[in-house]
Amino acid sequence: KILILDFGSQVTQLIARRVREAHVYCELHPYDMPLSEIKAFNPKGIILSGSPQSVYDDANYHADIGLFDLGVPVLGICYGMQFMAHHLGGEVAAGNQREFGYAQVQTIDSKLTKNIFDEQANTLDVWMSHGDKVVKLPENFQIIGKTDSCPIAMMANEAKQFYGIQFHPEVTHTKQGKALINRFVLEICGANPSWTMPNYIDEAVAKIRAQVGSDEVILGLSGGVDSSVAAALIHRAIGDQLTCVFVDHGLLRLNEAENVMTMFAKNLGVKVIHVDASEQFMSKLAGVTDPERKRKIIGAEFIEVFDAEEKKLTNAKWLAQGTIYPDVIESAGAKNSKAHAIKSHHNVGGLPENMKLQLLEPLRDLFKDEVRELGVALGLPREMVYRHPFPGPGLGVRILGEVKREYADLLRRADDIFIQELRNTFNEKGESWYDLTSQAFAVFLPVKSVGVMGDGRTYDYVVALRAVVTSDFMTAHWAELPYSLLGKVSNRIINEIKGINRVVYDVSGKPPATIEWE
Ligand code: XMP
User: Fold this and answer.
1) Is residue 350 within 8 Å of 358, Cβ to Cβ?
2) Of 36, 352, 450, 516, which sits 20 to 30 A from 92 (CA to CA)?
3) Where does ATP bind (predicted)?
4) Binding residue per annotation — 226?
5) CA-proximal residue: ligand 1, atom 12 (nearest)
6) Minimum-distance ligand 1 atom for the alpha carbon of 517
7) Is 248 inside a domain boundary?
8) Measured in angstroms, how far is the CA atom of residue 258 from the centroid of ligand 1?
9) Burial 268-305 (b: 16+ CB within 10 A, else e)
């Protein structure tokens, strides 16, 4: 396995993605991981990430340099390279001009670069983003790549298997980046490419069995990808020792409860308790219009319902959750970042604080796309596993202002028509608009406008359609859906749903708007 020390670059997670794509297991740890822990981790190789810092900036941004004495290969990327140079006797100059974007690197043959560059020109097409650069090599290092503005763009000490690269091989803009990372982890480190889904399932199943023994496990199933895959995996490991609780808060998508019950209880044979708590949620939400209050009420109510079910299961000793690796990294990083809470993103299914259950989180090591791959391997339908995200408070934040059952019923149907048409409409390359968008849904606007249908005048509600394209949901573009698709969705909604006579399309980006309307 490979250890990645994270110095805080925006793209460190991508290094881990690329290493896992080479089927090598890796973990990301903070840069100040103690040497004793690094030794205990026993890595086949270490990768030092980039950083917004400069080696001169902040003495606290330093890893334990004992890592250079462990006899394992080290790859420093950007700041990682500068860190390596700085501590092994080279010299780093504070750049007075930043180099950002595309660059061409002239390479010199080395174990890392041989046969990776474009054959004729010996060049790599790379993506640079740095201010500082290495200006003097440490002892026993040689240059293995250079650009016009950066004479030491790549360096190596082949005897010790230390490599430094100034550009970012982990981003897809660096054409041969994947090949470079594969070369480092597979050939230079000699790491075992055994990180495959079937192997992972076997290991995870054995681990879950060892962990819980004959205890009972309870899991809050939301119908979302993470909790669904966690349920399928745990069920594979311990069968009927797992009980899932599916809470229907009355703010789910059309037929969601039936679909979840069919998929898990009927098809996979998982024990699922279906709690229809919609009455309870609706009455708690009556008269409440403030978005944050609505979120808090739904979250608190969810915990109450879940808690009550848990108490009935007297033997449950474990609470399973679909926590995934980015959640783990995020909450570890959150301690020193000033994350700004614009909306209270509670995850419905969160851990009630007074629960005396141990946590079982079998997806903690996996990235989202690995979770999806695992779900397919466990027999979940592809359509389910590649679904858009759906917020915990559900339609509660898509009905503006007060939530009413009547509104939820209208919205569910409109949303379903929109999603159906997105799934059934394709671009010229044959990709569905559902897959071309990252998240799409309908929003209920509790205002009435005038319309005309047949000979009669109507005075009905408005529905807004929202579709966005984003990679991280932190920023997003509105999706440029074809007019014909929008037209068809609008016609169907207005014709098929009595009570809605107008459909509008949201053309706001994030920022300044958010993806959800509340
Ligand atoms: P915003 O609206 O903040 O949404 O641009 C970003 C992503 O977060 C989801 N979201 C939520 N998820 N509970 C959740 O579990 C929430 O309260 C919540 N609010 C927003 C939203 O669907 C989008 O994917």
Assistant:
1) no
2) 36
3) 222-228
4) yes
5) 391
6) 2
7) yes
8) 24
9) bebebebbebbebbbebbeebeebeebbebbbebbbeb
Q: Is 304 a catalytic residue?
A: no
Residue-number span of the structural domain to which 78 is assigned: 2-188
DSSP classification of residue 470 = -
* Other Cβ atoms within 10 Å of 111 Cβ, number: 15
Does residue 124 or residue 44 have the better pLDDT? 44
82-91, 351-360, 498-507: least confidently modelled range: 351-360
* Assigned domain for 511 exists: no
94, 98, 118, 92: which is closest to 107 by C-alpha?
118
**Is the model's pLDDT at 355 over the cut of 80?**
no
Ligand 1 mean position, distance from CA 345 (Å):
6
Question: Would you state the pLDDT for residue 341?
Answer: 36
Taking the C-alpha atoms of residue 270 and residue 315, their distance in angstroms, rounded to an integer, is: 17
Task: Tell whether 225 is in a known binding site.
Answer: yes
Residues with CB under 6 A from ligand 1: 295, 343, 345-347, 389, 391-393, 397, 439, 473, 510, 514-516
pLDDT the model gives residue 98: 73
Q: What is the CATH number of the domain that holds 432?
A: 3.30.300.10
Is 170 marked active-site? yes
Give distance in angstroms: CA of 310 to centre of ligand 1.
27
* Mutation choice for ligand 1 from 222, 290, 343, CB with most ligand atoms inside 8 A: 343
Contacts made by residues 199-206, CB under 8 angstroms, sequence distance 24+: 200/374, 201/233, 201/236, 201/374, 201/377, 201/378, 204/233, 204/237, 204/362, 205/233, 205/236, 205/237
**How many A from CA of 394 to the centre of ligand 1?**
9
Tally of residues, the chain: 518
Which among 157, 188, 219 is the end of a domain? 188
To the query of whether residue 244 is one of the catalytic residues in this protein, the response is no
